[in-house]
Amino acid sequence: MMEVEGSSTSMNRAPDQSSFLRSRRSKALYQFKQQKLPACKPVLTPTSVITVFLLMGFVFIPIGFLTLRASRDAIEIMDRYDVECIPEEYKSNKLSYITDASIPKNCTRYLKVQKYMKAPIYIYYQLDNYYQNHRRYVKSRSDQQLLHGLEYRHTSACEPEESSNGLPIVPCGLIAWSMFNDTFTFARESTKLKVSRKNIAWKSDREHKFGKNVYPYNFQNGTLIGGAKLDSKIPLSDQEDFIVWMRAAALLSFRKLYGRIEEDLEPRNVVVVNVMNNYNTYSFSGQKKLILSTSSWLGGRNDFLGITYLVVGSSSIIISIIFMLLHLKNPRPYGDNSWNKKSLSG
User: Fold this and answer.
1) Where are the domains of the chain?
2) Which residues form the signal peptide (predicted)?
3) Nearest to 158, CA basis, from 140, 132, 133
């Protein structure tokens, strides 16, 4: 009998607990709908506002100096080569030079190292006045085809580079068709520098966005050749320079990673760069630059973040000083609504 009574008591207690929980939930929901939940409503007094702006300034300015220092620690060498690599007789007609396949495009540039550069030294190419963010250009690709290859047939978005000679193009689209095709080799005096072009693309792109069994097919076989050609024997997931190019830039000036120099460079070293100046930027007044850069704990050289912190911190301190002077000149005690009475009486 005792066991039966205990079990019946526990059974009666369970409905009571569930009904209690339901009532609490409904009460909380009612308070939420009626906006009666507890809330923090800080009163912004002049003192608290001035203190907040001062604290922002004292925090942001040191962070700005630290990030600016980290940015300046990254050594960078930049060389614009698109103009200098044009032969003298073609200076006035650059377009005929770049479109004539019979003219040799090789060019030699000399980069002098001013400060010690510790490996790895990142190699970038930079394109200016190049609108990779144009709507039609950005849409002219097929992510499903890049992942599945010829199995995916719905590639109408790739127009006008969807097919050639009646056969589908893999990879299709204007972005792939216009791939950058300048090449660089590097030497120090007479010794060739060790350059790695592995792991220059994002790991997530290599593993999840480009198929391991997808090979270029019928690519750059049309009458109008755009940029680089791809090796039809290597899957897209292993052609990292192509993967880097397919990540479209948001601004009209952008850099893309070309490779890494795996040797240190000493001050007063001269790096000899042999350039194959193949890529046509002359038809739209674009610019091409080669950059060698080290990195710091913040990344490459970019002063924007440090300057932003300094501007925000300095502005906060200036605003706090202005508020402080106004408060000292015309103090108004908390809760004083005399200004409202004067306006009503007037």
Assistant:
1) 45-74+299-327, 76-294
2) none
3) 140
Tokens for 315? 């502005």
Residues of the chain falling short of pLDDT 50:
1-11, 344
Contact 255, 125 (CB under 8 A): yes
Question: Exposed/middle/buried for 306, CB within 10 Å: 0-12, 13-18, 19+?
Answer: buried
The one-letter amino acid at 116: Y
pLDDT at 31: 74
Residue 151 CA: distances (Å) to CA of 91, 113, 154, 161, 256: 47, 50, 9, 18, 30
Question: 186: which 2 tokens?
Answer: 């590097």
pLDDT of 11 reads 46
In eight-state DSSP terms, residue 118 is P
Residue 243, CB half-sphere, CA atoms under 13 Å: how many? Answer: 26
Q: Whole-prediction pTM value?
A: 0.79
Q: What pLDDT was estimated at residue 1?
A: 40
Rg (CA), the chain: 32
> Could you write out the DSSP letters of every residue in 277-345?
-----GGGT-EEEEEEE--BTTBS---HHHHHHHHHHHHHHHHHHHHHHHHHHS---TT--HHHHHHHH
DSSP labels for 235-265? Answer: -GGG-HHHHHHHS--SSSSEEEEEEEE-S-B
The residue written with tokens 């507890």 in the block is 38
Instruction: Give 11: exposed, middle or buried? Use CB within 10 Å, 0-12, 13-18, 19+.
Output: exposed
Task: Note the pLDDT tens digit of each residue in 276-307.
Answer: 999 999 999 999 999 999 998 888 888 999 99
pLDDT at 15: 55
Per this entry, what is the length of the chain?
Answer: 346
Q: Which of 189, 188, 163 has the alpha carbon at shortest distance from 261?
A: 188
Q: What is the pLDDT of residue 339?
A: 53
Burial class (CB in 10 A: 0-12, 13-18, 19+), 314: middle
